[in-house]
Amino acid sequence: MSRSRSPQNNAEPVGTADPLRQPDALAGSSQNRFWKHTVKEWPTWLALLACYGGWAVVVWHHEALGGWLFAALAGYLVALHASLQHEVLHGHPTRSRAVNEALVFPSLNLFIPYRRFRDTHLRHHHDERLTDPYDDPESWYLSADDARALSAPMTMVLRFNSTLGGRLLIGPFLSVFGLFRADVREGGPRIVDAYLRHLIGITLVLAYVWGVCGLNPLWYVLLASWPGLSLLMLRTFAEHQAAVATSERTAIVEAEAPLAFLFLNNNLHAVHHANPSVSWFALPELWRQERAQVLERNGGYYLPGYATIAWRWMFRSKEPIAHPYRRTQCAERGRPVAVTPTPTHNVQVAAASKD
């Protein structure tokens, strides 16, 4: 849950409460905590200013930059904005959920409604369900039954998507299409509201992109949205794996500096999942302090950088299409069937590290 919604984070420290609990005193104390928290988050404020300011400048100068340079810069900033949306849904940079959402709700990637991202991502943080084909909305695995039911062409598409090269090329389309299809099937006022708000946000984005800067929206999608979403696919490609132990499903990737900032240190994913309310700029220190414990807890699921990930899996599948042991059937089709896990389900990364 986000920090603004967590009872623990809103509780007063033991021994500091006013014994008379006068409303005015409590209101003042609450305001003090709000502003202390907001000021402490100055790195996030700077990141927001850099993201929006950089994006506005890059889009304004799109003709002078040329296609390749524009795509590199705009894609980076679109991905950074998505990282900031992730930071916001976990309760930063203020304790106000409404203020936080207002800071990031116009999605620069155009395709992912912030509220849908927020709701699905918070479901993803139920760690006991991580990688489950049905319960984890961010899982790329299918159940054994669903995998067997695939057509031959779709099987080829998903096998290609399980390589890093495929994930970068077609992963954005599959991710957006999968979310939209699931939302159409589920429906309901909450989802409709999320898309209506999203429509307002992308109207503002396109008003600047097209109306002010004269950049055709199609070119923006091809040269900014798609590269930005591809960069997000790079981060998420190896951050989770199927493992019997819940704690061994989440990776540590020590990213190079430009990527570490781009992902707001979410590459230290096992640290983030263990401390979801901790600010992005505090994660590296936690990692340095608890390195041995983190690696012991996650079974050594560690990768030294994204160059290593590219070398190992650019043209080779990292994971099978079917989840190796979670379930074989969807609840709607019958009672879920568990598959007995074996030690071989956890050896894939260990074996790859010997390459």
Structure report:
The protein has 355 residues and is an all-alpha fold. The protein has one domain (65-329, 341-352). It is 59% helix and 1% strand. The chain contains 17 helices and two strands. It has a two-stranded parallel ribbon. The longest helix has 24 residues, at 189-212. The chain is globular. 36% of the residues are buried.
Characteristic terms for this protein:
355 residues; mainly alpha; single chain
**What is the number of domains?**
1
Average residue pLDDT: 86
> What strand line-up does the widest sheet have?
1-2
Low-confidence stretches: 1-27, 331-355
- What is the percent of helical residues? 55-70%
Please tally the helical runs, counting DSSP H or I stretches of 4 or more residues.
Answer: 17
Shape category:
globular
Order of helices and strands: HHHHHHHHHHHHEHHHEHH
Summing up helix and strand content along with how strands pair, one would put the structural category as mainly alpha
How many β-strands, per DSSP? Answer: 2
DSSP strand (E) fraction?
Answer: under 5%
Major beta-sheet overview: 2 strands, parallel
Our Rg estimate from Cα atoms comes to 21 Å
Distance between the terminal alpha carbons, to the nearest Å? Answer: 39 Å
